[in-house]
Task: inverse folding
């Protein structure tokens, strides 16, 4: 059986892309699955950024780490 996991990024309520991956289901207590989605956007003051995560395994979805880096150049 496989598990589907997906993530989306929205800026100002507009989808900026998504990723979907299928993994082989693992036994209970197995190690964590690491999932990476990285991209760059040019934001302005007042922009709203939203992250959505989904999985279809029926088990708990624990998001342990979410890293965001904001750089200002110029």
Result:
């Amino acid at each position: 059986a496989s598990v589907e996991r997906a993530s989306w990024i929205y800026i100002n309520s507009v989808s900026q892309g998504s990723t979907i991956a299928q993994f082989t289901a693992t036994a209970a207590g197995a190690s964590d699955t690491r999932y990476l989605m990285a991209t760059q956007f040019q934001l302005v003051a007042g922009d709203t950024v939203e992250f959505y995560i989904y999985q279809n395994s029926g088990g708990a979805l624990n998001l342990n780490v979410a890293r965001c880096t904001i750089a200002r150049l110029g």
Summary: The first strand starts at residue 2 and ends at 11. The beta strands are 2-11, 14-24, 49-55.
